Input
Amino acid sequence: MHAIVLAAGAGSRLRDVTPVKPLLSMRGRPLLQHVLGALAAGGATSATVVVGYRADDVAEAACGAVLPVSIRPNPLWDSTPNGVSLLAAAGDVRGPTLLSMADHLLSPGLVAAVVAGAQGGVSLGIDRRLGHRWVDEEDVTRVRTRDGRIEAIGKQLLMYDCYDTGLFVIRPALIEALAALSDPSLSQGVAQLARQGQAHAIDIGDQAWLDIDDARAQALAEAEWDWR
Output
């Protein structure tokens, strides 16, 4: 299975800690390499990394990962939502494809669970442990589900029953949905497929994930993540 990792953003909330978020050193390796390693351990055999900010530095780190990596640039990274970054790698979505963010630590078991449960146009790993102290409630993307399908997704949802873990299995249908929108976010594309009944939720149970978006999350990861 191929994987796509979105690594184009500037990561401004971690700027006091590191100038380039995907290159944040954790246990002696860039965060991006931990992400790619988890994807490989969970079933990915190759990957595309979409770059933007400090593209050459991020590409160099990506090519030191444990699986073959190709690089796709997003020249509009600083003025468009993350759906545009995914469209930069549209040609690499030929069938079921893993999609992850460059700043999300993932357990290999989470990756394997999402791969095993994938169906429809897009499948998203969701976490029903509301209030988990690893989650930044003010910044996390919220999801409302019904009967295993996604009904709504977004950071501003008032009624929701789970969190978006940042790990998807996507198919060309999501690329088509994004391409039909102007400056689309990934959540907008998922919402479009949800309205068509093509967006599925995969409960990850107690599998671990952590969005390294600020210094608090970095400290949690250093102290509590299982680095084995």
User: Anything to note?
Assistant: The longest strand covers residues 162-170.
